[in-house]
Design the sequence.
């Protein structure tokens, strides 16, 4: 007899007897007790298996959803790819931290808990907190992010019902350094056990998809920024803003061959670890969050004169004698009127100047005459090829906000004013890309804050190589014989163009004395590698006798200081003979 | 004979059950071990990030600058300036090395980009 017998099967006994009887009756063969036992054994086995399966199904059906171990618990990918500079120095990293929440129903002494919390967090009110605890809600967020010290203090209150949820906090170890560029993060989807970290500005927002991608873990996002250059440039910009009592300032350092931005400074700045609240009103003038070089669009003034001149040279525009323009072609500096507006020539300069002098001595009338000869359509087409009529493609959230502004009606007057940088408002980053194309041999580059593997990222050709060389030559002449004489360096040959643009006064034309002073420079001028844009908002300079606000007295010396210090760091050997002060 | 067959199959079933049971257990403990290892890795990664953040914080440019100023008498570091570039000709020759220098220096002098720090 086997261990399991029909007779011993308890409750199934009567059923089994019936089945046995049926089998016996239906069979014509003599009954074999062994066969019977075997069949019964198999039957019992199947029954047991079915019972187990049925029991399990019943358990799943009747159990409450809460304890079947398969309820949906939202969990978020809270890790984020670190950000490093071009040399691998950490710019943004995640640190473990905690969120604080309460289960008021578990609290034995809500009063004590509320009082303790109010002592730790100055922005919490004890009475209000106690009242909320006494409402007997199941769950209550108290703080989204607390420090380890605060966590210890909360634990020291010694009361029940206070809990901590693990969090990742995005931390910027360098503090204010490259604050605008990095932007900042906030918590998106949030659960007790985890919270999603999402970018809300700068590269954190623009590259959010990459940064929050779990598969990218371990490979940090490498920016083209160099922390050392960024730090130095931010220091020099802050110094200049103090010295020239400027409101705001911008510096861009960009590689002209591949568009890599090595430093991008914007003052005033902020600490991304403690990002200030966006106030909205009057943001462009007062908010430290406003990212001038990328987000701000300004009429940048005379720095634009290089563009009609480059176009005239490149397209072989005939001068007054019918010959294609050269640097020495005659251009009139006489003031003239167009659509009732007077366009002035440069003072203390004869009526007849050369094309070269339009740039070196910054003649509005000269630049406007060239542009008028080119015509609105050609001017517009050329500026469009340089990228001045669309937002830059830079990987920053603010890039798309920096949409250039230009007049709907682009006729003769607009053509004339845009030639000297009024009427078309672009971001300083647009200007950097435009200048890069003029001096890099003539092809367009797209500014990028990510490292590119290539030394050159050639876009479509904008001007010929020969015209590009002539532009470098003229930009150098602005320093040696023109308006940027303060950029003469004993060591480095710098080229560039100044621009002093009156700020628009909404509804009333332009401010008389408030200007944006810009110096768009290239160095080293004999073999350009970098473009440096310095732009100071409402800067004034006092040489002891009088106040001046021209770029030549503010932005130019700032650029000289910056280039003198960063060029050795970029490995550029001094080229100009020592002490010659060229 | 049948009894032996039966006993043999019973033994086989017991052995297989034992094997299955031990496999399940081994799998479970392996899963637990993997989970523990993953937790350890996550913890180590967290520590690594913490150390990286601390290192970046301690080596941030403004701190280095102030430390260099404070300990100038010890470290004697000055910023790199345009005057910091030398000339290959100013490098003194070692005695008796003229022959070697001639060959290499002509190359170096002809191609300064070989030795300019980039």
Sequence:
């Amino acid at each position: 007899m086997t261990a399991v017998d029909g007779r011993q099967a308890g409750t199934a006994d009567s059923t089994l007897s019936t089945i046995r009887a049926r089998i016996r009756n239906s069979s014509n063969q003599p009954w074999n007790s062994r066969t019977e036992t075997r069949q019964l054994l198999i039957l019992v086995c199947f029954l047991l298996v079915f019972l187990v399966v049925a029991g399990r199904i019943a358990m799943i059906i009747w159990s409450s959803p809460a304890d079947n171990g398969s309820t949906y618990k939202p969990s978020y990918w809270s890790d984020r790819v670190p950000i490093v500079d071009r040399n691998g120095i950490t710019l943004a990293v995640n640190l473990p931290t905690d969120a604080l929440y309460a289960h008021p129903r578990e609290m034995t002494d809500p009063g004590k808990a509320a009082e303790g919390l109010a002592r730790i967090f100055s922005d919490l009110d004890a009475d209000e907190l106690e009242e909320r605890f006494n409402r007997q809600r199941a769950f209550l967020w108290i703080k989204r992010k607390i420090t380890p010290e605060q966590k210890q203090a909360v634990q020291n209150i010694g009361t029940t019902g206070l809990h901590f949820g693990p969090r990742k906090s995005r931390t910027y170890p360098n503090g204010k350094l490259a604050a605008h560029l990095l932007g900042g993060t906030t918590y998106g989807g949030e659960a007790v056990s985890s919270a999603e970290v999402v970018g809300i500005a700068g590269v954190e927002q623009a590259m959010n998809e990459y940064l929050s991608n779990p598969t990218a873990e371990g490979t940090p996002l490498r920016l083209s920024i160099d922390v050392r250059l960024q730090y130095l440039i931010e220091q020099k910009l802050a110094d200049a803003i103090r010295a020239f009592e400027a409101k705001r300032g911008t510096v861009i350092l960009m590689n002209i061959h591949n568009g890599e931005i090595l430093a991008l400074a914007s003052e005033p700045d902020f600490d991304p670890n403690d990002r200030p609240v966006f106030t909205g009103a009057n943001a462009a003038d007062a908010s430290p969050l406003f990212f001038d070089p990328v987000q701000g669009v300004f009429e940048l003034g005379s720095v634009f004169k290089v563009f009609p001149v480059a176009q005239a040279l490149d397209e072989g525009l005939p001068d007054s004698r019918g010959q294609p323009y050269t640097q020495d072609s005659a251009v009139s500096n006489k003031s003239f009127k167009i659509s009732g507006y007077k366009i002035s020539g440069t003072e203390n300069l004869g009526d007849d100047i050369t094309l070269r002098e339009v740039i070196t001595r910054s003649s509005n009338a000269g630049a406007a005459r060239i542009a008028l000869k080119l015509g609105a359509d050609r001017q517009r087409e050329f500026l469009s090829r340089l990228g001045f009529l669309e937002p830059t493609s830079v990987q920053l959230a603010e890039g798309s906000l920096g949409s250039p502004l230009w007049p709907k009606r682009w006729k003769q007057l607009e053509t004339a004013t845009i030639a000297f940088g009024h009427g078309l408002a672009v971001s300083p980053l647009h200007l950097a890309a435009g200048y890069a194309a003029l001096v890099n041999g003539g092809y367009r580059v797209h500014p990028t804050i990510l490292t590119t593997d290539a030394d050159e990222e050639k876009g479509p050709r904008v001007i010929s190589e020969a015209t590009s060389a002539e532009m470098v030559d003229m930009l150098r002449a602005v320093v040696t014989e023109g308006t940027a004489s303060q950029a003469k360096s004993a060591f480095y040959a710098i080229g560039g163009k100044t621009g002093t643009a009156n700020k628009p006064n909404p509804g009333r034309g332009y401010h008389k004395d408030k200007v944006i002073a810009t110096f768009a420079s290239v160095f080293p001028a004999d073999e350009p590698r970098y473009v440096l844009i310095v732009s100071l908002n409402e800067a004034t300079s006092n040489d002891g006798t009088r106040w001046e606000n021209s770029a030549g007295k503010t932005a130019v010396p700032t650029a000289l200081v910056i280039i003198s210090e960063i060029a050795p760091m970029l490995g550029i050997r001094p080229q100009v003979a020592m002490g010659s002060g060229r | 004979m049948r009894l032996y067959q039966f006993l043999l199959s019973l033994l086989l079933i017991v052995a297989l059950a034992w094997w299955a049971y031990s496999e399940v257990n081994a799998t479970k403990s392996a899963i637990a071990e993997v989970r523990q290892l993953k937790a350890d890795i996550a913890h180590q990664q967290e520590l690594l990030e913490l150390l990286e953040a601390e290192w970046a914080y301690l080596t941030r440019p403004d701190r280095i600058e102030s430390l260099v100023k404070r300990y100038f008498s010890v470290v004697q570091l000055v910023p790199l300036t345009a005057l910091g570039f030398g000339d290959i000709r100013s490098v003194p020759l070692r005695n008796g090395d003229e022959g070697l220098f001639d060959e290499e220096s002509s190359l170096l002098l002809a191609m300064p980009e070989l030795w300019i720090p980039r």
